[in-house]
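Next comes this protein:
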Amino acid sequence: MAHWRYGRGWSKREIRQYLGELEQCEVNFQVPLDEMSEEAGWKQDQLEASLGHDRGGELFERAKQALCGYEFSDPSIAVSYFDPEAPLLGRNMLLEFRAYGFHFLNGVRVRKVTEEPHAHGRIFGYRYETLRGHIESGVQWFTLLEDARTGEVRVRIEDCWQLGDPPNWWSAAGFVVIGEHFRERWRHRAVERLRRVAKPDPGLR
């Protein structure tokens, strides 16, 4: 089950310990990705938005760096802890969810990275999957798409999830009641923050 606390988070030592424990954790679902349908009880969310236009490619590269470093996340809702020296593919991360004074630690692992050209530009993205003990169960995709014809860069955030391993009955109930509100707010703020950190001119941040 997820680690949780009220009123405060965890020390650096504790975070290092819990990160190390993730090495032995497996994903907390067995359903193949192509079977995670709404009919089967999986909630699916998606948000796609433009980050701006930049024919020089700097916007895409800055946005890519921000995605890899999880810089787009609103820290009042979710903070990510990971080894910055670890390769993106296979990286373990601890996500600290924050709501109304409660803190929940949840493990995820990057299981897929995509970086390739497409018909009119290039694409970059990665998918992480929830590990045993995560309050949710499922996957999340982060994707950047660049259109070389116009210079536009777009971001897409996709979720497929259901309730995972909550630490107690009241956190499960609370997640059902307010979880979607926080998820939607987090997605929209993620786009706003990504626009700011990805601007080619640092003085405009």
